[in-house]
Design goal:
CATH topology of the largest domain: Rhopdopsin 7-helix transmembrane proteins
Number of domains: 3
Low-confidence stretches: 25-35
Structural class: alpha+beta
Distance between the termini: 55 Å
CATH architecture of the largest domain: Up-down Bundle
Number of strands: 13
Order of helices and strands: HEEEEEEEEEHHHHHHHHHHEHHEEHEH
CATH class of the largest domain: Mainly Alpha
Strand content: 5-15%
Number of helices: 15
Oligomer: single chain
């Protein structure tokens, strides 16, 4: 799953880079706009090659008609006033495609114009014979009528994108320091892509964003990518235990994205003509998820979570299919119904996924707390006897292992003379010094009241001999600065696992323990000699 997540993020990043490049290498200019009112062409001509010509007699609009305004989708435009070319919109013939995209054309007319001719040439066969509405007039509030038509769809699209952004940021926040699955991330990325695509498909976007070539590319590429995060989300949320089919669909979509870009950049097959491949991927995703849901129903695996969201899932599938049918029948963009359905879907699944994620985090944290309580010594913070026994039972290979045992001298006397608080400090300081010296090389355990064990996972005897010397030096350094009630005296013993003689790990522990008690006896003897004024023997 990590690999697919990485591919998804890489694809989205690459798409954003391509859009920025598109914006950088293409340019457009805004035109002044006027107040609109509908006007009907006096003559209409349709050529066999798809070209359309609309002729207007301007006598009915007075001496100062203002501007003529109309909407085009993937069409080049030429406007003539009394036989003279007044306005052109040509294809760019670049790696981004030769379509000018979707746009509103604002053509300012000179006073006294008698005849206006508008010629439209479709870039794609599907773009021919579109319903054309023309407006003419003047004034600064030209946008109002157009905005009222497209504002609902645009606002819903923006809400979808903003909800997706919030979901993505929410996942990033809760993922810090936690191992959270990517369900929310996939839903967030899908929502952002859907919002960008949906907003770009509205007339509102055509009015606001003048660089329509970049917007056209953005619409194509976001639609191509959308099946990938949706597939990952559906698989994760519905807990679809499939290891093959979803990978095939995922790879197919990735291959389609790469192939579409190659075909478009070479001029062989533009994005608009290759959309059927993306639509096929969308249908495959819908079928895949529906089959998974039906399979869960048959196996009676429908839980409360799925019942809560299955209605929204079916609704969004119906909306997607209706929009696809509408696209191939009329060439129309997604309507308000589809956008509302997707918004409901994102909100319901976002809430359900967030609750699921929070519940999982609580379980993980509770499990971690229980594990820490079960395996860690509450006083010193290092592993306890349970952890030691578990490790010894489950470790399969001890060849090359070494074990060091420690015993705190005079802990009982410390408790009796200075109190249990001083005894606790004794244990904590001893554990700290043991852990500081040996944690990098093995695991440290407190297996009894004053007993500690370190399991070293290799047989580097020279290194560990040096470690023991450093260990003794740190104890001496601690004692030079400590009060009488904090003085440390720690006996230790070390033993190496011998595969020829050690049938069980307990044998190694016993040899180390015996060595520790020998060291403990020697330390007591030295202490007694020192107390009697005798010369102390060298430290063993």
């Amino acid at each position: 799953m990590k690999r697919e997540r990485g591919i998804l993020i890489s694809v989205v990043t690459a798409a954003l880079v391509m859009v920025l490049l598109c914006i950088f290498f293409t340019s457009d200019r805004a035109v002044s706009v006027k107040k609109l009112k509908k006007c009907v062409p006096d003559e209409v001509h349709f050529e066999e090659d798809g070209r359309e010509q609309y002729d207007f007699l301007m006598e009915a609009y007075g001496e100062a008609p203002g501007s003529i305004v109309f909407y085009t989708a993937h069409q080049s435009v030429a406007v003539y006033a009394d036989g003279e070319e007044l306005y052109t919109l040509e294809t760019s013939d670049s790696i981004w495609g030769d379509t000018p995209g979707w746009r509103w054309c604002f053509v300012e007319l000179q006073d006294g114009v008698s005849r206006v001719c508008v010629q439209l040439t479709p870039c794609y066969q599907m773009a021919a014979r579109q319903e054309q509405i023309f407006y003419i007039g003047g004034g600064n509030d030209i946008y109002m009528g157009l905005l009222q038509q497209s504002m609902p769809a645009f606002l819903i699209s923006m809400i979808i994108g903003l909800v997706g952004l919030y979901i993505t940021l929410y996942w990033i926040v809760i993922n810090k320091g936690n191992q959270v699955d990517g369900t929310l991330l996939y839903l967030g990325i899908f929502s952002i892509l859907l919002g960008l695509w949906s907003a770009n498909e509205t007339n509102m976007a055509a009015l606001i964003f003048v660089n329509r070539q970049a917007c056209s590319y953005l619409a194509f590429v976001t639609l191509m990518i959308m099946p990938m995060p949706f597939l990952l989300f559906a698989k994760s949320f519905l807990e679809i235990h499939d290891s093959r089919c979803w990978k095939i669909i995922f790879v197919m979509d990735f291959a389609v994205i790469v192939l579409d870009h190659i075909l478009n950049m070479t001029g062989f097959y533009e994005f608009r003509r290759s959309l059927w491949m993306t639509h096929l991927i969308i249908l495959l995703v819908i079928v895949y998820v529906l089959v998974a849901i039906i399979n869960k129903m048959v196996k009676r695996q429908i839980d409360q979570k799925l019942k809560y969201c299955v209605g929204a899932l079916i609704l969004v599938f119906l909306a997607a299919i209706i929009d696809l049918i509408g696209y191939y029948r009329t060439g129309n963009n997604a309507g308000v119904f589809g956008r509302i359905a997707f918004l409901i879907f994102i909100l319901l699944f976002g809430i359900a996924t967030a609750r699921q994620t929070v519940a999982s985090l609580k379980k993980v944290r509770r499990a971690e707390e229980l594990e820490q309580f079960a395996l860690n010594d509450s006083m010193t913070g290092i592993y306890n006897r349970n952890a030691y026994d578990y490790y010894v039972r489950n470790e399969k290979q001890f060849a090359g292992y070494m074990i060091v045992t420690f015993d705190l001298n005079n802990l009982k006397q410390c408790n009796d003379h200075y109190g249990h608080r001083a005894g606790d400090a004794y244990l904590v300081n001893a554990a700290r010094i043991i852990e500081d010296n040996f944690e990098r090389y093995g695991k440290c355990y407190r297996i009894g009241g004053d007993e500690f064990v370190v399991i070293l996972e290799n047989d580097d005897c020279e290194r560990y001999a040096a470690l023991l010397e450093v260990f003794e030096q740190e104890i001496q350094a601690h004692n030079r600065q400590a009060r009488p009630d904090s003085q440390l005296s720690i006996a230790r013993g070390i033993a190496l696992y011998d595969s020829a003689t050690d049938l069980v790990f307990a044998n190694v522990f016993k040899r180390a323990d015996d060595a520790m008690y020998q060291n403990k006896a020697a330390m007591k003897e030295r202490a007694a000699r020192a107390k009697a004024g005798a010369e102390p023997e060298p430290v063993l």
